[in-house]
């Protein structure tokens, strides 16, 4: 039972990276993409998972966005009313629309009660017919004092920093932009008015005209809310016709997020001038690649192949991610035992989010090692005819420094996991000490692997770094011995 979430945040790339990392580290969730636009000052995440998994990820994302984003200082061409502006739940295979309606209402109820956010339900979740359309919700939010604008959850007044939250369940839509080689905003708005359904244009099309100051262009930005009625190729042709009349060229089109296979026509990629093409943009393919067991099996297959990378560093990163996941499981099942007067819920939640982030960072470092090793190989393959000795040497040092930093990052993460493991051995559910021990074994093994990779990438004159790296891993090995002693006493095998 899969659910897709496509939350829109009122933020740029730097904040989006933090939110994407949080989503990537959430249990049972696969992050498919994160896209940001400076002119819109807006970021869109796409992730999938089973119902409760995406709901828990949604709660953490809305809370973190409320902490990071101040809507009062926000600027950008896209209309917005909240830090997390819109948070839709979309049913995929095995899931009914009613399931997503329930999830959106659970998120709304929680955000209203715990974050003090006014929450409005839209589309299939709407409690009022006039709020089914997102544009209608935005219009009502502009009308202060109108009783129809009372939120479904939370207080009436906007949150001081985070504004409002709009959430609901909806059908798959295609977010599609067409950029014009013109700075005529009136033209973009006129085309948007011509093609959108509300003005008598194409069915199931919402469209706006925006200026992209950073590009010196204007844009017709669209949501195709039912691609079965109007697909991207059809709407592109309609815009092209209007541009031809105005003697304006199309600079290219953009997909935001992913495109369902059913919305793709065989000639679409070439005919729509999609910037970057459709590679990696088909929703079903991305889901198949991202969700286990496919991604795990693929990683194992790639590591065991005859290709130079990925190799041992990537394997170490995966081992660390498994260790972080195992300790997170032990923590989640120790909630009742862990929380007390001296250990408040805030500490539990901090450890929880920290482990989720560590797991995500282990995976990031697994990929970073693969990239860094590729750079090392490329540096050694630099042609002597094209590059002098100093340039080749500098390239090798730079690539090896990057590879070493990846190894050191793995060791640092392993240290964090082991510290948390001791907390759980002392205060967690005693029936889960096996999981704690397995976690420690995995992350210490990851650190040992990172040590060998790190030593391989350090130069002869970096003896101090070699010694410190070995010392840190040695400390981890001693701490693993302490964990083993705890389990040996528990099972009375000493």
Task: Give a structural overview.
- With 494 residues, the protein is an alpha+beta fold.
- It folds into three domains: 3-169, 2-Layer Sandwich (Formiminotransferase-cyclodeaminase, Chain B, domain 1), CATH 3.30.990; 174-281, Alpha-Beta Plaits (2-Layer Sandwich), CATH 3.30.70.670; 292-490, Four Helix Bundle (Hemerythrin (Met), subunit A) (Up-down Bundle).
- It contains 15 helices and eleven strands.
- It has helices at residues 13-24, 51-68, 97-114, 134-141, 185-195, 232-246, 268-271, 283-290, 294-303, 312-332, 335-338, 345-380, 389-427, 433-456, 463-490, and strands spanning 3-5, 8-9, 29-37, 42-49, 84-91, 119-123, 165-169, 174-180, 205-212, 217-224, 250-256.
- Strands 1, 2, 3, 4, 5, 6 and 7 form a seven-stranded mixed β-sheet that branches. Strands 9-10-8-11 form a four-stranded antiparallel β-sheet, covered by helices on one side.
- Helix 4 (134-141) links the parallel strand 6 and strand 7 (165-169).
- The model has no long low-confidence stretch (mean pLDDT 90).
CATH class of the largest domain: Mainly Alpha
What coarse outline follows from CA principal-axis ratios?
globular
CATH 2nd-level architecture of the largest domain: Up-down Bundle
Supply the number of helical segments.
15
Number of domains: 3
User: How would you state the average pLDDT, rounded?
Assistant: 90
Helix coverage percent of residues?
Answer: 40-55%
The residue ranges in which pLDDT falls below 50 over 5 or more consecutive positions are none
Instruction: Give the termini separation.
Output: 47 Å
CATH topological fold name of the largest domain:
Four Helix Bundle (Hemerythrin (Met), subunit A)
């Amino acid at each position: 039972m899969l659910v897709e979430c496509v939350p829109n945040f009122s933020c740029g790339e730097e904040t989006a990276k933090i939110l994407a990392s949080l989503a990537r580290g959430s249990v049972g969730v696969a992050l498919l993409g994160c896209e940001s636009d400076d002119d819109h000052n807006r970021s869109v995440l796409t992730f999938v998972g089973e119902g409760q998994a995406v709901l828990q990820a949604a709660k953490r994302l809305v809370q973190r966005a409320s902490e990071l984003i101040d809507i009062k200082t926000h600027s950008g061409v896209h209309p917005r009313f909240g830090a997390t502006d819109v948070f839709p739940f979309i049913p995929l295979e095995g899931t009914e629309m009613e399931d997503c309606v329930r999830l959106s209402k659970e998120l709304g109820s929680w955000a209203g009660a715990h974050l003090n956010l006014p929450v409005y339900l839209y589309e299939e979740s709407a409690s009022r017919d006039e709020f089914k359309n997102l544009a209608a919700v935005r219009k009502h939010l502009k009308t202060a004092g109108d009783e129809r604008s009372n939120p479904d959850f939370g207080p009436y007044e906007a949150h001081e920093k985070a504004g409002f939250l709009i959430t609901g369940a909806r059908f798959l839509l295609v977010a599609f932009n067409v950029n014009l080689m013109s700075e005529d905003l009136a033209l973009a708005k006129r085309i948007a008015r011509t093609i959108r359904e509300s003005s008598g244009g194409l069915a199931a099309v919402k469209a706006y005209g925006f200026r992209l100051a950073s590009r010196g262009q204007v844009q017709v930005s669209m949501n195709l809310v039912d691609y079965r009625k109007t697909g991207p190729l059809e709407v592109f042709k309609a815009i092209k016709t209007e541009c031809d009349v105005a003697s304006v060229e199309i600079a290219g089109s953009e997909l935001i997020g992913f495109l369902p296979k059913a919305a793709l026509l065989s000639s679409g990629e070439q005919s729509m001038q999609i910037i970057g093409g459709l590679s990696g943009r088909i929703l079903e393919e991305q889901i198949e690649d991202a969700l286990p067991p496919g991604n795990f099996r693929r990683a194992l297959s790639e590591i065991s192949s005859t290709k130079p990378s990925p190799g041992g560093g990537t394997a170490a990163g995966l081992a660390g991610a498994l260790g972080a996941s195992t300790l997170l499981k032990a923590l989640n099942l120790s909630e009742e035992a862990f929380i007390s007067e001296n250990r408040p819920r805030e500490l539990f939640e901090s450890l929880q989010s920290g482990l989720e982030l560590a797991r995500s960072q282990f995976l990031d470092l697994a990929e970073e090692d693969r990239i860094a090793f590729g750079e090392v190989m490329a540096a050694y393959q630099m042609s002597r005819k094209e590059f002098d000795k100093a340039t080749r040497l500098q390239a090798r040092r730079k690539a090896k420094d990057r590879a070493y930093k990846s190894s050191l990052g793995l060791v640092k993460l392993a240290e964090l996991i082991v510290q948390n493991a001791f907390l759980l051995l002392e205060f967690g559910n005693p029936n889960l000490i096996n999981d704690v021990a397995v976690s420690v074994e995995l992350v210490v093994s990851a650190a040992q692997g990172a040590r060998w990779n790190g030593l391989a990438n350090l130069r002869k004159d970096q003896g101090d770094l070699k010694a410190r790296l070995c010392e840190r891993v040695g400390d981890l090995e001693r701490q693993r011995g302490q964990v083993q002693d705890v389990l040996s006493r528990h099972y009375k095998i000493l």
